[in-house]
């Protein structure tokens, strides 16, 4: 737990929140600035800033809970679908890993990604980018 972290304080019940789910690994609560009613945040109880900081043995339980919570939010809100998102540092208003679960409806005004698209300059740029990522994936997998 980080004593200055807003979400750690919610986990510790030092700050009130509308908690909708909790288990040994994570807690889910309504976002106080929702995109739509039902916008829920799922956060690991362990303090970590980004997804890459979360220990491997915590990733599975977090995403099992994200899957269950998505189904619950969609059903409870009578939504047609959902949007899930994670910010890692950039645009992260609270530096504690959390998954946004947002109920969606067709023509709800939310337009996919909120930023302009930046296409590849040509086929070579596309291939160079793919190869750079493949190389890093191979190196990271070799470390496991």
Features:
five-stranded antiparallel sheet, 144 residues, HIT family, subunit A, 3 helices, 17% strand, alpha+beta
Outline the structure in words.
By secondary structure, the protein is an alpha+beta fold. It has one domain: HIT-like (HIT family, subunit A), CATH 3.30.428. It is built from three helices and five strands; from the N terminus they run αβββαββα. The chain has helices at residues 6-11, 56-77, 123-143, and strands spanning 19-22, 26-30, 40-44, 81-85, 99-104. The protein has a five-stranded antiparallel beta sheet with strand order 1-2-3-5-4, covered by helices on one side. A hairpin with a 3-residue loop joins strand 1 (19-22) and strand 2. The longest helix is centred in the middle third of the chain and has 22 residues, at 56-77.
- Poorly predicted regions: none
The helix count comes to: 3
Largest sheet: 5 strands, antiparallel
Helix content: 25-40%
Share of β-strand residues: 15-25%
Distance from N terminus to C terminus (CA atoms, Å) equals: 26 Å
Strand order of the largest sheet: 1-2-3-5-4
What CATH first level would be assigned?
Answer: Alpha Beta
CATH architectural name? 2-Layer Sandwich
Mass-distribution shape: globular
- Quote the CATH topology: HIT family, subunit A
Q: What is the H level of CATH, i.e. the homologous superfamily?
A: HIT-like
**Structural class of the secondary structure composition?**
alpha+beta
* Overall pLDDT metric: 90
Over the alpha carbons, how many angstroms does the gyration radius reach? 18 Å
Number of structural domains: 1
What's the β-strand tally? 5
Order of helices and strands: HEEEHEEH
């Amino acid at each position: 737990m980080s004593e200055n972290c807003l979400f750690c304080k919610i986990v510790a019940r030092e700050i009130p929140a509308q908690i909708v789910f909790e288990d040994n690994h994570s807690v889910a609560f309504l976002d106080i600035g929702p995109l739509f009613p039902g916008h829920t945040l799922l956060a690991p109880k362990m303090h970590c800033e980004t997804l890459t900081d979360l220990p491997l043995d915590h990733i599975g339980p977090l995403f099992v809970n994200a899957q269950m919570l998505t189904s619950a939010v969609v059903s409870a809100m009578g939504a047609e679908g959902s949007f899930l998102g994670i910010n890692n540092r950039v645009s992260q208003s609270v530096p504690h890993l959390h998954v946004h679960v947002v109920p969606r409806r067709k023509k709800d005004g939310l337009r996919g990604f909120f930023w302009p698209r930046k296409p590849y300059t040509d086929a070579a740029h596309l291939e160079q980018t793919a190869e750079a990522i493949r190389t890093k994936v191979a190196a990271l997998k070799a470390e496991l």
